[in-house]
Amino acid sequence: MGILDSLENNPAFRSALGQLGAAVLPAVLSEVLGSNSQGGLGAIVAKLEQAGFGDQVKSWLGNGQNLPISADQLRAVLGNDTVRQLAARYNIPVDQLSQILAQELPKAVDQASPDGRLPHGA
Q1: Closest Cα partner for 61 from 111, 26, 104?
Q2: One Pfam annotation, family name (predicted)?
Q3: Do both 66 and 101 map to the same domain?
Q4: Is 19 found in the same domain as 73?
């Protein structure tokens, strides 16, 4: 077991990474969802639907349980360069940022669409 393996399995290290992610999450989500390069939440939802993730998007917009999306799937839709740039800007490992976005994007879409649709201009 290498030092990185032992760090990844260390609860204190994992907790610190989680806190770091939670601390910058609002800024990262705001940047991704309001980003001119991504076109905002509506554009990201459209990209996800075009990429074959319509069932997930429908679950996020509707009432009930949100279907998951993997970090790799989301990174493919957003673009590796975008995710890398955000990770560098907020000094978060790319894999961790992708995982945080995959966990939080469904919640953000769900909260932004209380009536089952995104508001105009989202």
Answers
A1: 111
A2: YidB
A3: yes
A4: no
Residue 68 lies in a domain: yes
pLDDT tens string 89-116: 878 888 888 888 888 888 888 888 888 8
- Rounded Cα distance between 94 and 89, Å, is 11
In terms of DSSP H, where are the helices of the chain?
3-8, 11-34, 40-50, 54-61, 71-78, 80-90, 94-112
Count of domains forming the chain: 2
Confidence of residue 31 (pLDDT cuts 50, 70, 90): low
pLDDT for the residue 6: 43
CA quadruple 115, 120, 55, 36: dihedral positive or negative? negative
48 and 83 share a domain? yes
Query: Which residue in 56, 76, 74, 72 sits closest to 64, CA to CA?
Result: 56
Question: Structural domain of residue 22, as residue ranges?
Answer: 4-33
Structure tokens at 28: 């990262």
For residue range 53-86, list pLDDT tens digits in order. 999 999 998 888 999 999 999 999 888 898 898 8
